[in-house]
Amino acid sequence: MEPDDRHELGPREQGILALERRGFPGPGAKERAIREELGLAPVRYYQLLNALLDDERALAHDPVTVNRLRRLRETHRTQH
Question: What is the pTM of this model?
Fold first, then answer.
């Protein structure tokens, strides 16, 4: 990793956040986009997304999306 790289998200991480900003019309549409646009299995995508929510670089890159997803994650955790 180059010294400057640790301060910025890579293309895959930026793609994950960009996908999370979008709305999807129906069931399966998001999973299809995950496979087609990012080349990831949905399970792996959600593992990466969860880790990304704890990454301060992600918060700096897209605070609105990261904070929204953190709130959703916390609500989900307290309900189960």
Answer: 0.85
